[in-house]
Amino acid sequence: MKLICSKKGVIFDFDGTLVDTSKVWNIIDKQFFERRGIDYNFEEYWPLIQGKSLKDICCIFKDLYQLNESVEQILAEYNQLIQLTFKNKLKLRDGAQQFIELLISKHIKVGIASSCSKKNILDVISNYPIIQQNIKAIVTSEEINMNKPCVQIYQICGELMGICNIKDDIVIFEDSYNGILGAKQTEALLIGISSFEKSKFIERQNMCNLWIENYQNLTE
């Protein structure tokens, strides 16, 4: 914690890192595919979509399952399902609220760099007023039209936070392989966190400066 507190800012990924969305995505996917009578395999498509924007995920679904609808129609339906599910069912991971509020109390800037849409992030964050009021930047793949492992998403987030020297002044928290791969390029202190993401576990651990199971130990 002392090393983190020596930095000016912290950038978090969202999906998997700040919130455990695995159960929620399963609910959404089940509804979406059951409407079409499709047997889907989460393990089959997960490696294809990690780090991708929702629009790109819809493109993958259209091709993978040969859906008749346009990408725009699929995206609209998915957004509707997400909006009905995210705000009411998603909470920050154990210890995350306390950890972020601790950072805020120590005047460490907080930002989010994610493949999730900004609206979905804000729907969840709105349940935590102190965090909502103090987030300095939220940058999404949709906004910059680039998916992780692009390094630009972290650079832009750092700039919006008012921190230009990412390498020396920022800590990045990530869980997925593509996220860790992108964050590694910044040369910032990189902390990996266990999540529902199971692929390339050893590779992900080895790329990080530190690996944690949850945020609870960081607040003790």
Task: Give an account of the 3D structure.
This protein folds into 2 domains: about 1-20 and about 90-210, HAD superfamily/HAD-like (Rossmann fold, 3-Layer(aba) Sandwich); about 20-90, Orthogonal Bundle (DNA polymerase, domain 1), CATH 1.10.150. The longest helix is centred in the middle third of the chain and has 19 residues, at about 70-90. Strand 4, helix 12 (about 175-185) and strand 5 form a beta-alpha-beta unit. By secondary structure, it is α/β, with parallel strands linked by helices. Strands 3-2-1-4-5-6 form a 6-stranded parallel beta sheet, sandwiched between helices. Helix content is about 50%, strand content about 15%. The chain has 13 helices and 6 strands.
Secondary structure: elements and pairs:
Elements: H1 2-5, E1 9-12, H2 22-34, H3 42-49, H4 54-64, H5 71-89, H6 96-105, E2 109-114, H7 118-125, H8 129-134, E3 135-140, H9 141-144, H10 152-160, H11 166-169, E4 170-174, H12 177-184, E5 189-193, H13 201-207, E6 210-212
Index terms:
single chain; 220 residues; alpha/beta; Rossmann fold; DNA polymerase, domain 1; 2 domains; 13% strand; phosphatase activity; HAD_sf
CATH superfamily of the largest domain: HAD superfamily/HAD-like
Q: How confident overall, as mean pLDDT?
A: 91
The shape, in one word, is globular
CATH architecture of the largest domain: 3-Layer(aba) Sandwich
CATH topology of the largest domain: Rossmann fold
